[in-house]
Amino acid sequence: MKLTSFTINIAGGDTRYLNAEGDNLLRAGLRAGIGLPYECSAGGCGSCKFDVLSGEVEEMWPDAPGLSAKDRVRGRRLACQCRPLSDCEIKIRPGPEYLSATAPARFKTQYLGSRQVTVDIREFMFRAEQPAQFVPGQYALLDLPGVGQLRAYSMSNQPNEAGDWHFMVRQVPNGRVSTLMFDALQPGDSVEIDGPLGLAQLRAESPRDVVCIAGGSGLAPMLSIVNAVAMQPALNERAIWLFYGGRSPADIPTFADWLHKPDRVQVTAAVSAAALAESDGWQGERGFVHELLGRSLSGDLAAHEYYLAGPPPMIEVVVRMLMIEHRVPAQQIHYDRFF
Predict the structure, then answer these.
(1) What is the number of helices (H) and of strands (E) in the chain?
(2) Which of the chain's ends, N or C, has fewer CB atoms near its CB within 10 Å?
């Protein structure tokens, strides 16, 4: 049966695209090479807000936190949570900065297996029939059987011809998705992936040294970035720092197992729970990860390129510290907002 496609016209110009049945407005636009604004693509950040000027759309998550009460009164919607039910005209402001080197596509993969990273984080490995094309630091959406909602996870590996996609997932107590992945997913299972997505990817053209800051499963995109920089001959002159924070020593991975060139990366890990650090005999840094920057980086902190991934409170604190205390320009700080 032929799927129905609707024409989406963006007001204020001659930009339009086809939206295939079942696809949301955001990803259909990105697939068509139109830079619709977004970050999380999951309803949390609100970056893809738009107005419907004509036509009809279906809201998949009317209560998505990316919309405020004021937004709802004004009739605003989220492009990542809307599917068209007819031809539409919408008001949104595209920009080329929202496009990545590879347009997102939906494809099937086979689950290969997993390996443990920390006490509650595991790396899950999938293989597609086509090459895995993405930029280190990006993420993809996984459509897991029985979940009914796409979940965003960052890639922890490198782009490759074999079609391998690796994701680090933290096991959440009573979490529907992580419980399924940790306890029910079996090698050979089919899982659909939609990607790549994300704007916090490696800027290989930047002349500045690289600083990656991570907490929790935010380790995945930071490993992808530091390994990419370490392995690219053109970036041999770049210094690389990786800062990682965990609550207990059990949350800190053995970094040598995950770095392709350990000698190229200066790793500093910190444990925030003093009692757990003491009871486990932790010999490393103690405190929150953002507190390490000033002690570990010498000179002008604005001389570096920063990549961040982790819990939203950590991101907020680090961004505020870098921009306010150290006058780091916003364009040198890269992260995708997830809530």
Answers:
(1) 7, 19
(2) N
Q: What is the DSSP letter of 87?
A: -
Q: Are residues 173 and 282 in the same domain?
A: no
Task: Tell me which residue of 96, 93, 26, 28 sits closest to 64, measured CA to CA.
Answer: 26
Q: Is 222 exposed, middle or buried (0-12, 13-18, 19+ CB in 10 A)?
A: buried
CA distance 37 to 50: 10
Same domain, 213 and 321: yes
223 and 189: one domain?
no
Is the same domain home to 279 and 260? yes
CA-closest candidate to residue 170, choices 160, 161, 181: 181
* CA within 13 Å, CB half, 193: 29
In a domain, 142, yes or no: yes
Q: Render pLDDT for 230-244 as a digit per residue (tens, 0 to 9).
A: 999 999 999 999 999
Compute the distance between CA of residue 302 and CA of residue 322 in angstroms, rounded to an integer: 8
Contact 128, 193 (CB under 8 A): yes
Taking the C-alpha atoms of residue 197 and residue 79, their distance in angstroms, rounded to an integer, is 15
User: How does pLDDT run across 21-78, given as a tens digit for each residue?
Assistant: 889 999 999 999 999 999 989 898 999 999 999 999 999 999 999 999 999 999 999 9
**Beta-strand relationship, 240-246 and 209-215:** parallel
* Amino acid identity at 84: P
Q: What is the CATH number of the domain that holds 21?
A: 3.10.20.30
Domain that holds residue 177: 105-197
**Which residues, including other chains, have CB under 8 Å from residue 45's CB and lie 6 or more apart?**
38, 39, 66, 337, 338, 339
pTM above 0.90, yes or no: yes
Tell me the torsion sign for CA atoms 105, 225, 253, 286. Answer: negative
153 and 228 fall within a common domain: no
How far is it, in rounded angstroms, from Cα 132 to Cα 228? 15
DSSP code string of 26-49:
HHHHHHTT-----SSSSSSS-TTE
Q: Which two tokens stand for residue 325?
A: 């205390």
DSSP H helices, 86-196, are 176-183
